[in-house]
Amino acid sequence: MACFETNLDKQFVKISNRHPCFSGEASMTKGRVHLPVSPICNIQCKFCKRTFNKFEQRPGVTGKLLTPDKAAALMDKALELCPEITVAGIAGPGDTLVTPHALETFKYVNERHPQLINCLSTNGLLLERYAQDLFDAGVKTVTVTVNAVDPEVLQHICSSIVLDGKRYEGLEGARIHIQAQKRGIKKMAELGTMIKINIVLIPKINDFHIAEIAKTVQALGAAIINIIPLIPQHELSDVPAPTCEELNEARVAAEQFLPVFRHCQHCRADACGIPGQGDLSHLLYEYSGLDQTFSHG
């Protein structure tokens, strides 16, 4: 298994110890807030189902969308509710780089609360394009979802992508997506950003491919991996979720190359609080009129 502290310098170790999505210990003592400002996605994953509601505990779900200025103002309330919050994160509910909302939000938050770690989650399709802008906006950690590094595998996970107004499907879209992710991860790592890789473990589709993903992203500069079990839904509703044994096997395979985070809570796009101590989003947000819609480009 790769050694965390020999792979990262002291600055990165300090960040990970304050970030509940990068450290098992921090996940029980440090808080984060997810600000749902990004409505649109530019890829269509076969397992992804975005929606507005108050009750589902999974990614891609929020009770409402916020404007960047409203999201930044809510940070004051979030810190009052949970002074242990160390991370201002944006994880959707769409992709964070399709619109300028995430970047604008981080600029506001960085001005008002420079002590917080600004954290972005993305599918990576536009990461290289906005890498410098993210760094300049104070983004210190980035999570990229990489479900395959072989287009032959990814085409069974992602139906299509939209890039610069053009839709690419199947194998062609998978090739473009993977190359864009690689360039983006490498660029962000070169800028000094801490990179976490999320992998959705899908039995019989990418479960044999985990070590290759880990090896590839390690070479690009990623620091840590989080393997998330599939939630069967949408086009993959008939695919069973991985068993605990399958999940453990995947984590062991990844640990040949990078440390693996094992405390993921499948957080919503509007989560708030300390992950290991329950969610406070119902106290932070005022939900009404959940009739907004999402777009995939």
Strand content: 15-25%
Q: Could you give the count of β-strands?
A: 13
Distance between the termini: 40 Å
General shape: globular
Radius of gyration: 18 Å
Chain-averaged pLDDT: 84
Sketch the major β-sheet.
8 strands, mixed
Structural class: alpha/beta
Helix-strand sequence: HHHEEEEHEHEHEHEEHEHEHEEH
Strand order across the biggest sheet?
Answer: 12-11-10-7-6-5-1-13
Helical residue percent band: 25-40%
> Could you name the ranges where pLDDT drops below 50 across 5 or more consecutive residues?
1-7, 289-297
| Number of helical regions | 11
Your description of this structure?
The protein is an alpha/beta fold. It contains eleven helices and 13 strands. The chain has an eight-stranded mixed beta sheet, with helices on both faces. Strands 2-8-9 form a three-stranded antiparallel beta sheet, with helices on one face. Helix 6 packs parallel to helix 8 and helix 9 runs parallel beside helix 10. The N terminus and C terminus are likely disordered.
Short description:
The protein is of the alpha/beta class.
Which helices and strands, and how do they pair?
Blueprint: H1 4-7, H2 10-18, H3 26-29, E1 31-34, E2 43-45, E3 51-52, E4 61-62, H4 68-81, E5 85-90, H5 101-112, E6 117-122, H6 127-136, E7 139-145, H7 151-154, E8 158-163, E9 166-169, H8 170-191, E10 194-201, H9 210-220, E11 224-229, H10 244-254, E12 260-261, E13 272-273, H11 281-284
Helix pairs in contact: 4-5, 6-8, 9-10
